[in-house]
Amino acid sequence: MKLRKPLFAGFYAIATLGFIAGNALAADPYPNKPVTLVVPFAAGGPTDAVARLIAVPMGKDLGQTVIVENTVGAGGTIAATRVARSAPDGYMIFIHHMGMATAPALYKKLNFDPMKDFEYIGQVVDVPMVLLGRKNFPPNNFKELETYIKANKDKVTLANAGPGAVSQLCGLLFMSREGVELTTVPYKGTGPALTDLLGGQVDLLCDQTTQTVPYIKDGLVKAYGVTTPKRLPALPNIPTLDEQGLKGFEVKVWHGMYVSKGTPPAVVNKINKALNVALNDPEVKTRLAESNIEIVSPAKRTPKGLQEHLEAEINKWGPVIRKAGAYAD
Fold first, then answer.
1. Are the C-beta atoms of residues 271 and 93 closer than 8 Å to each other?
2. Smallest Cα–Cα separation from 187: which of 158, 156, 161, 167?
3. CA 48 to chain CA centroid, nearest Å
């Protein structure tokens, strides 16, 4: 007597195979397609330059192309919102500078929360800054500058690159620590601000070393102090503001890397590994050093390192910005 084959046996087999295939696809190792690295500023700027430099070695480690994409506008908040709302799968990575920490205070309406809407990959690099004066500005050193601005605070002009720019924040912190209110002159970028400083149209400017070191070395501007805890190898004779009396004064254009909240830990770890591989690449190290850009310590190149630093920076800059009423919207 022959046993009759169940009518639905074929369907059970097909369903089982489909389930196995679905699991295999779901288990495909990350990444299995190109990854996008979102930069919140225009191509050619410092953040964009760092992103494009590390994208290639990161891609080699991940086994996929890392495509740099510029999403500009609103001080980086448009790009941050885009990444925060992206799928939590690691295919959209975000690199941003300290604007992530200042945005909560600078913007009355913000479509993302830096502390709640992202997973942290790690810090990347720091770009030091220098407090500069025009070549023919009377003070010749920092002590003379302090005396001069307190006696002439209504006449001294302090340039910046516009609302929310790091140069503006550096200036706000400087005025807060000195207890003075200088006449601020906002520009559309540090390029035109530096041009006017070189031309003698403004008195002071806090700017990044990536573009100011040659002018300092050529004597075209006066350098009153660097904004880092230690002196810079590129400017060994320029004292820090900290050692000249402004204890704890530190402003660096630090950069961090993020993905959207809910991205699996395994994916976060893979991206973090790729970031560290890139920052340990000899060519990357050389090119960053040539631009006076500092790679952060290994301890900072971790999710925990970035999270703790971001929180500390939010607490640092919030009171300064709110006291000055320097809102960007």
1. yes
2. 161
3. 10
Instruction: Please answer whether residues 166 and 255 qualify as being in contact, where contact means their C-beta atoms are separated by less than 8 angstroms.
Output: no
Residue 59 tokens, joined = 């891609």
Are residues 272 and 325 in contact, defined by beta-carbon separation less than 8 angstroms?
no
Give me the sign of the Cα torsion angle 298, 301, 307, 312.
positive
DSSP string, 31-74: PSS-EEEEESS-TTSHHHHHHHHHHHHHHHHHTS-EEEEE---G
Average pLDDT, the chain: 90
Assigned token pair, 116: 């709640």
C-beta separation of 231 from 223 below 8 A: no
Please, which pLDDT band fits residue 1 given cuts at 50, 70 and 90? very low
User: CA-to-CA distance for 102 and 74, rounded, in angstroms?
Assistant: 13
Instruction: Report which of 173, 175, 205 is spatially closest to residue 191, judged by C-alpha positions.
Output: 205
- What's the CA gap between 226 and 174, in Å, rounded? 12
Query: Do residues 82 and 71 lie in contact, with contact meaning Cβ atoms separated by under 8 Å?
Result: yes
| 188 — pLDDT class (breaks 50, 70, 90) | confident
243 C-beta neighbours (distance < 10 Å), count? 15
Determine the 3-state secondary structure of 191 from DSSP.
helix
Q: How far apart are CA 103 and CA 21, in angstroms?
A: 45
Q: What angle (nearest 5°) sits at the alpha carbon of residue 125, between those of residues 321 and 68?
A: 95
Q: How far is the first Cα of the chain from the last one, in angstroms, to the nearest whole number?
A: 85
pLDDT in the model for residue 18: 44
Pairing of β 157-160 and β 66-70: unpaired
Of residues 39 and 75, more confidence is placed in: 39
Alpha-carbon gap, residue 37 to 276, rounded angstroms: 15
pTM: predicted TM-score of the whole model, two decimal places: 0.82
Helices (H) and strands (E) in the chain, counts: 11, 12
Report how far apart, in Å, the C-alpha atoms of 184 and of each of 36, 119, 161, 203, 301 are.
Answer: 38, 36, 10, 10, 35
pLDDT digits (tens, 9 = 90+) for 159-181: 998 877 889 999 999 999 999 99
